[in-house]
Design a protein that fits this description.
The structure is a single chain. The protein contains 4 helices and 5 strands, in the order ααααβββββ. By secondary structure, the protein is α+β, with helices and mostly antiparallel strands. The chain has a domain of about 120 residues: Nuclear Transport Factor 2, Chain: A, CATH 3.10.450.50. Strands 1, 2, 3, 4 and 5 form a 5-stranded antiparallel β-sheet that branches. A hairpin with a 2-residue loop joins strand 2 and strand 3. It starts with a helix and ends in a 7-residue tail after the last strand.
């Protein structure tokens, strides 16, 4: 029994001692995630390899607007052959052959477009048409700004027997804007 008062006295005396100086905490460098190189597992796709795009399957008005997005992206990238092929009848609806079409942009240094909301589809003689408001703008080779508003009409053949794969896709039927004159 005498041991209890002695233990309590020791605990009390130990609690009265001056605390030891606070030792500085060891510095720990924060661990950062290492970047993963493109093309490696867990990394982004290798940007040097173009991503394959699936054909536009939307038969509605938004599909028509997507064709215009591809068309103007091709023009902006100066890929005139790809843009020309988005016109109906294998490019012939543009009123020019592929070379003349490309040459019509010779005076253009920068070419951009804004595409509005497509209108309601209208049917006629086995085809569907959609009109889409557009604005094209940019700079000529001489440094002159240009801006023009208009409408693009796109056409696709309805799903009828005998229609070709080309005819079943939205294609540009006509357009109310043109490259700036030289």
């Amino acid at each position: 029994m005498r041991a209890i008062p002695i233990v309590l006295a020791l605990v009390f005396v130990a609690g009265c001692q001056k605390p030891a100086a606070d030792a500085p905490a060891p510095e720990v460098a924060p661990k950062t995630a290492e970047a993963t190189a493109p093309g490696q597992p867990g990394g982004l796709p290798d940007d040097r390899t173009p991503v394959a795009e699936a054909p536009i399957a939307d038969k509605g008005p938004q599909g028509a607007a997507q064709v215009l997005q591809s068309y103007f992206a091709s023009l902006e990238a100066k890929e005139y052959g790809a843009a020309w092929k988005l016109w109906s009848d294998g490019g012939k609806a543009s009123g020019q052959d592929a070379k003349a079409f490309a040459d019509s942009f010779a005076n253009v240094a920068e070419y951009h477009a804004e595409i509005g909301a497509p209108g309601a589809p209208e049917g006629a003689a086995g085809s569907t048409y959609v009109e889409v408001p557009i604005r094209v703008y940019g700079k000529t080779v001489g440094g002159r700004d240009f801006s023009e508003r208009g409408t693009a009409a796109l056409r696709r053949v309805n799903d009828v027997p005998g229609a070709t794969a080309e005819q079943l896709q939205w294609r540009i039927h006509n357009m109310g804007v043109a490259p700036p004159a030289q």
